[in-house]
Amino acid sequence: MHQQNGGGIYYSNAGNNQQSSAGSHNDGMTHSRVPSDMQSNEESVEATGGSQVRSKIEDIDEFTKEGKLKEAVDLLELLQKEGVQVELPRYLALMKACGENQALEVAKSVHQHLLKSMPHLEVRTYNRILEMYSNCGSMEDAFAVFDQMPRRNLSTWDIMISGCAKNGYGEDSVELFEEFKRSGLKPDGQMFTGVFSACGVLCDIVEGMLHFESMTKDYGIVPTMEHYVSMVDMLGSAGCLNEALEFIEKMQVEPGLDIWETLMRFSRIHGNMELGDRCAELIQLLDPSRLNEQSRAGLIPINPSDLARQKEKKKLSGQNLLDVRSRVHEYRAGDRSHPDHERIYALLNGLKQQMKEAGYVPETKFVLHDVDQEVKEEALMAHSERLAAAQGFLTSAVRSPLRIIKNLRVCGDCHNAFKIISKIVGREIIARDSKRFHHFRDGSCSCNDYW
C-alpha cells in the first residue's frame, strides 16, 4: 500500500501481479486476453420489447442530455431487469455526463450496471471509467479501477497522472510517472503536461524544470504551447513570477494569449499588480475580447472555453451546480428562487458569525460595485457557490462530502470562506471551478491557495 503524506489517497501497486508472462510492453500496458466489449452479444430492440423498449432507450438519451442522471440510471436498471441490452455508446455518454456534473453516486451506479451488462471490458472503456471518476473528484475510485485493470495503455497512465494532479494529489501523480518510466515505457507529450501540473501542485519547480529538459533531451518531444503554458502555470503556482517571466522570454516560439493570461492570473494572486497590469495590456493588444470588467479591475481573465460552454447551454455568469443525493441543483449569485431560500440564507447568516470568530475577514475587493461595506459583505455571502453549499448542508447526510461545480473561477473570498467553513462543519467540500478541483478539508485546500 502507498500513502500520500498530508491527507492523500491510498492505493495498491498492482503493476507486477497483473502482468502476463507473455505480455508485451510496446503499448504501455500489461496484457491479458479479454473479449471486446464492442463485440458483446447485443439483442435487437425489436426482438426484446418493441416500441416500449425503444421509447425507454430514447428516454435514457434525453435524460442524459438534460442532466437527469438519476432518472437515466433508473431506466437502465429497469431495462436490465427486462433483459434488454443497452449499447455501449449510451453508457459512455452517461459516464461523460456524470463526470461533467460531478455526480459521483450516479457514476458508481452506471459503473455497476455496465459491469453487469458487459463483464469483459476493453481498455478504452476502462479509461472512460477512470476519466469519469477523476472528473467526479474521486481518485480513490479511479485507483480502485486502475489497480484491477487486466490491461493498460498509454492513455490509462495519462488519465491517472493528470487526474491526480487535477485533484491536488501531486505526489501520487509524480510517483505514477516514475513507476511508468521504471517499466521501460516511453511517455508522450500529453503525459508531461500532467507531470508539470503535478509539480505545480507540489510547488516543486526544480523537479518540474528537470522534467521539462528531459522531455526534449531524453524523449525527443518538441514543446508545444500547451507545455509552455503548463510550465508558466507551475512557476506561477510556486510564486516564482520572475522565473516565469524569464522562462517566457526564452521560449522558442512567440508566447500566445494563454501564456499571458496564466501569468496575469498568478500576478494577481501573488499581489504583483504591476506585472499583472503589463500582462493585461498585452492581452488587450492581442485580443481585447479575452478581458472582462473583472480582468481590467485587476482580478481574473475570462476563459474562452467557458464562454462557449455558457453560450451553448444558455447559462448565466456565476452559475453553480450542486449534487445532492444524486440530483443536480442549480444556483446563481443572489438567487432566491429556491423553495428553501429562507433556510439557506438563515444558515449562511449563522455561519457568518462563526466564520468571523474563526478568523474570516471578508475580501470585499471582489465586489466591484460602489456600495458600503455591509452591502458588499452580504453580496459575498450570496455568491452562488455558498448558496449551493448551504443547501447541501441542509439536505445531505451529516459528514458526507459536498460536491459543487462552479462554471467560472471561484473568487478569492469564497475560497477563504470554504476553508474556514470546512473546519467549522467538519465536512469535506469538493469544488470544481473552471481551473481545477479544490478539496477543502479541516481549514485547508488541496491547491495550497494557488489556483
UniProtKB/TrEMBL annotation:
PPR repeats lie at residues 122-152, 153-187. PROSITE patterns: PPR (PS51375). One of its GO terms (biological process) is RNA modification. The keyword Repeat applies. GO terms for molecular function: RNA binding; zinc ion binding. It is found in: Mitochondrion. The keyword Zinc-finger does not apply. Residues 13-29 have a biased composition (Polar residues). Residues 1-53 are annotated as: Disordered. Belongs to the PPR family. PCMP-H subfamily. NCBIfam families: PPR. This is Pentatricopeptide repeat-containing protein.
